[in-house]
Amino acid sequence: MDQVDAGLTVRVDRKCSACVGEMALVPYRIENAFPFPVSVGLEGGGARQQATVKPDSVEQGRVALPPDTAPGKKVLAFHVRTGGELLAEMPVEIRADNRLAFPQPPHMADDATMRLMLRNASREQSLSIDRILWTAGLAEGVREVSLSIAPGEEVSLAIPEVRLEPYAVVPLCVEGRLGGEFLGGWQGIIGDNPVHRLTPTMDGNLDEWEDLPAIDLRKHGTVKMTQDGGPADLSGKLWLAHDERNFYLAARITDDAHHPPVEENDIGDQIEFVVSPMPPWQAAARYWPGEGFYRFAVSLRASGPQVYQMKGVSEDEGQSLAEGAVCRARREGMETIYEVSIPREGRELFTPGCPYFSLSLLVRDRDGPDRGGWIEWGSGFAKGKRRERFHLCRLGKR
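and the corresponding structure tokens:
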């Protein structure tokens, strides 16, 4: 809200979008507290709107801007005038969108298909699509379709031809076309990240995990180490599973020197992970950085295996032993073996009826005060708290 005069308040939305070829409509609201009518002019982007506001009343409307011919963003200066006098200048960002929009990132479903959510960004015209082109890593394909999407509506589409290595992070490009015309596209990353249904015996023996796909730290993760010594310095595999009672994690970590935390709030050689019950694109602001995100730290200390739960996503907020958690861990040569269960009761790790959730994890290597780092899978919390950098995982039915 901008008070441009003692009795006059003008509000103009600072961000506005429209489909290419359609007018952007910028909402405004004018409040006149004077005991006499006021004529207000709004000018910007080659458009002009004149409004006469009655005494002690409010006038609302929209300024129609000329259509853009290409997608992109621009910032316009909106001028507020009365009687030819300039009272205020307000910056307004205008975004011109392609006709085809992707309201959420493409993702893999439990039936091994890639799911697309397609939206017609136009307010006025239906959108026809006859081809979807995709490139995932080194693989590519074309899906012939016959879609007609009403203005502002969304449809879901399954692409069964996409096959991904579990837990690999793959660059993805998707385009929608009608004949040779480009309608819109999406670029980013995609992964197939199943969390299988399994009730392990929790004895520290990983034989029952070995047949499941695993997160390979060196292959699927990102190394954030100072003076990285290679796989002998830090490497390993992690497995994820669930049942109706618990979330499970198992790991076989190679580390040539084991330096666990000493004090309760120390950081040492340990596994850390953060779980959110919502997909990254749905995580509302109220779920960040504390409520709705659960951060855990697993370590093999001199006193034995421990599972701590942070009070928030940041380690600065303190931690306490995770209630009900079970950890079996041991050191064998250069390997540390973990098997962990986290009770779901009392923690909203997953959303009922929704197979998707967000996960980011890392394995730390703390070789003294001057050398350390980690290997991360998903960079959502180690440096900078970014929910969009969490990986989308799905709860498997088997």
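(Above: one complete record from the training split.) Confidence is low (pLDDT under 50) at residues 284-289.
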